[in-house]
Amino acid sequence: MAQRLSQDGHKVYGTYRRDSDPIPDVTYIKADVRDEDSLKSAVNQVLEAEGRIDTLISNAGMGIGGPLEFTPMDDARMQMDVNFMGMVRLFNLVVPVMRSQRHGHIICISSIGGLMGLPYQGMYSASKFAIEGYCQALRLELRQFGIHVTVVNPGDFSTGFTAQRNKVCDPEALAAYPSYAQSMESIEADENSGLKPERLARRISKIVRKRHPRSRYVIATFIQKASVVLKAILPAKWFDKILGSYYEL
User: Fold this and answer.
1) What's the rounded Cα separation, in Å, for the pair 49 and 227?
2) What is the set of active-site residues?
3) What is the pLDDT of residue 14?
4) What span, in angstroms and rounded, lies between the C-alpha atoms of 76 and 91?
5) Residue 169 in contact with residue 176, Cβ under 8 Å?
6) What is the mean pLDDT of residues 73-84?
7) Do residues 119 and 249 touch, judged by C-beta distance below 8 A?
8) Which residue blocks in 162-218 are alpha helix, DSSP H?
9) Cβ-Cβ contacts under 8 Å for 50 (sequence gap 6 or more)
10) Burial class (CB in 10 A: 0-12, 13-18, 19+), 211
11) Are strands 55-58 and 104-109 parallel, antiparallel or unpaired?
12) How far apart are the C-alpha atoms of 180 and 122, rounded to whole Å?
């Protein structure tokens, strides 16, 4: 996304936690969404240089996998702290800037998992469901100031996210939930063969340019988009059977 937006001619600032190969024409700022002071410093650095923030893309996230009852509490707290509270911390710093400008566009990267509870990814889904509710309320509150709030729900994309997922490896969990290991293998196979991130970047590029962006964009395969529609129209019992069958539960 940073590369594409930079190529489009936008002035792009991107935060990072660990050193990596720099993207040309992107200004890097070290920050961690769990550290409010580092976020304040990052936002102030942009304002000192530019005097404004026109678009904010919130996409910091991590994932944990495993049966919910076996998810360590420390992992559960980290999941919510990064995916949800990290977003809240950042928005609390940027929204006043956009409100004073009387314009701005907030784009929050949620997930298909924010529209349906995914087996063995329940805490991840919970963090994304929290984002959905927050952004819906935020959208209503900020439209009086000319600020757009857009939620993007990607499906499976082939990125480094899969390899970095924290997974429950407790033998007791594996014994109690025989379907867990096979289901997780299927989940990760779908991710590794998923859409390329360049596709998401192209869509984000178009969304940023829109004068009247939609409140939601689902960017996924046909089957995953269809699952969102089925979730909305089918009785919960029917949809649960379909989802359970897909995950071989």
Assistant:
1) 44
2) 124
3) 94
4) 22
5) no
6) 96
7) yes
8) 171-176, 179-192, 197-209
9) 11
10) exposed
11) parallel
12) 12
